[in-house]
Amino acid sequence: MKQSVLVGPRTSKIMDVPIPEVGPNDVLSRVRTCGVCASELAVWQGSGNYPSKIGHEIAGDVVEVGEMVKGLKPGMRVTGLIYHAFAEYAIAPSNQVIPIPEGISYEHALGEPISCIISGARRTEIELGDTVAIVGLGFMGMLMLQCIRLRAVLN
Ligand SMILES: [Zn+2]
User: Fold this and answer.
1) Which pLDDT belongs to residue 129?
2) Phi, psi of 93 (to 5 degrees)
3) Average pLDDT over residues 97-121
4) Tens digits of per-residue pLDDT, 52-81?
5) What is the 27 CA–ligand 1 centroid distance (Å)?
6) Which phi and psi angles does 79 have, rounded to 5°?
7) How many Å lie between the centroid of ligand 1 and the Cα of residue 34?
8) Residue 26's CATH number
9) Residue 82 falls inside a structural domain
10) Which terminal residue of the chain, N or C, has fewer Cβ atoms less than 10 Å from its own Cβ?
11) Ligand 1 centre and the CA of 50: distance in Å?
12) Which residues form the domain of 102?
């Protein structure tokens, strides 16, 4: 399969690598889209070990599951935390993969950033009536705004 591999600071190359082998609890997915995460900026800029494989915010289609995997099967659309995903295929333990509901595109189903926001919102001690500042209102900031609003209302 083809995979983008960082070979040095700000330099990636498309390489031919083997398709990952599926273990008993693994899900192998064909990558349809993969987000670019700020957590990978440092390695892109030069603070990593090379070669390095990045990309972990994917949505794709299941192509194979291990014999212990329940609830996921080939053909299902999925998202999750799946590393080394700037590639044709990526593999992850099944507990890091969830189905994409009907009617949601691959591009709108990137589950990993949403899980980061929900985890962050759960760690706050915000109550209804508190004043909150969110620095940066891009994709992640807008998600955090919605989660904090819901969290305060649902307490
Ligand atoms: Zn991320």
Assistant:
1) 86
2) -60, 145
3) 90
4) 999 999 999 999 999 999 999 999 999 999
5) 19
6) -140, 170
7) 10
8) 3.90.180.10
9) yes
10) C
11) 20
12) 2-109
